[in-house]
Design brief:
With 370 residues, the chain is an alpha/beta fold. It contains 12 helices and 13 strands. The strands form 4 sheets. A 7-stranded mixed beta sheet has the order 1-9-8-5-4-2-3, with helices on both faces. It has a two-stranded antiparallel sheet with strand order 6-7. A two-stranded antiparallel ribbon has the order 10-11. The longest helix is centred in the C-terminal third of the chain and has 21 residues. It binds pyridoxal-5'-phosphate (PLP). Pyridoxal-5'-phosphate binds next to α3.
Length: 370
Amino acid sequence: MTQPIVPFFSAVGATFGVDLAACLRQVVDGGQYVLGPRVREFEAAFARYLGVAHAVGVASGTDALTLALRALGVGPGARVVTAANAGCYASTAIVQVGAEPLYAEVDPLDMNLAPAALEQALGAGPVAAVVLTHLYGQMGDVQRISAACSAAGVPLIEDCAQAHGAQRGTRKAGAWGALACFSFYPTKNLGALGDGGLVATDDAALAGRVHALRQYGWAARYEVALAGGGNSRLDELQAAVLLAKLPRLDRANAERRAIARRYGAAFAGLPLRLPPPAGDDCVAHLYVVRTPRRDELRAHLARHGVACDVHYPAPDHRQPVRRCTVSLPVTEAACAEVLSLPCYPGLMAPQIDRVIDAVRAFFSAETAAC
Ligand SMILES: *Cc1c(COP(=O)(O)O)cnc(C)c1O
């Protein structure tokens, strides 16, 4: 098949209707390309949006996680609790700082770190930090998890790379932990035209450390005061794009949620495990269904012009570089069954119908065959 009729991502939809070329032009003409006025303006705007005191732009979501861990002083010998179904990003950062990931089981309904499993891990030995990924845009049980972390005196890092704009009550994802990490990879809910990331925190000392770490560990220019620094800056071009898109993020998230709700209504009754209904604490970054016949369904949808993806096919502890012996049955079962359907701003009504019809056809054909 050449171009699918329903692709998995829309570059046009991802502009949120903003003239991004004009944003870029302004930066080109302004002549300041690294850590200039737009980065500062975006950091302030995003901190305000989240309701946190500080936001520090960095080069990627993975760097955000790495610098957040470094800012907390997590290093060699330390253990960091996280889930193993979230694409290996947290694991990558944990290993990058010399620490060791300690994988805990996920909740079978929302697929996020299970509070009981975390509580058990916190009771079983010293833990330096916890990374909670709000997977697929659905916030985890952040109340119970942050309470468990506080009780154990362990800092919580929220990985919000799929959850820009999600909120529980009036408090946004990213305003619950000691630090929160965001990615602005182009396909994220708030995406740039390249790589970008950000660390948010209410703690001025932590923000100061991330600030120093993103630029060689400098306290002032050419004064290397903090070990472990490097070069991880958000550039002006990306900041200009993000600044222009931010005011339209909530509308784009509402569009994603509406698609998720249409799928939820259309698929009720099918032998498919559906994600929880999308409330305010879900920004439908991915619409992920589960079936033991995942690969067949995916092939069927491809034949009908619908592109899908799998997030994620292998759990972190089974990656070739890990070789952990730990057993995580819920996580492993999920990895074998998850399938992400198209869900993004700019997805047209006839395309949504096509996805729905194709999914239904798969199961009605199956019923007929039985
Ligand atoms: C995309 C993503 C990251 C990594 O972000 P990059 O900008 O690609 O480095 C981290 N965590 C999660 C959950 C992600 O989805």
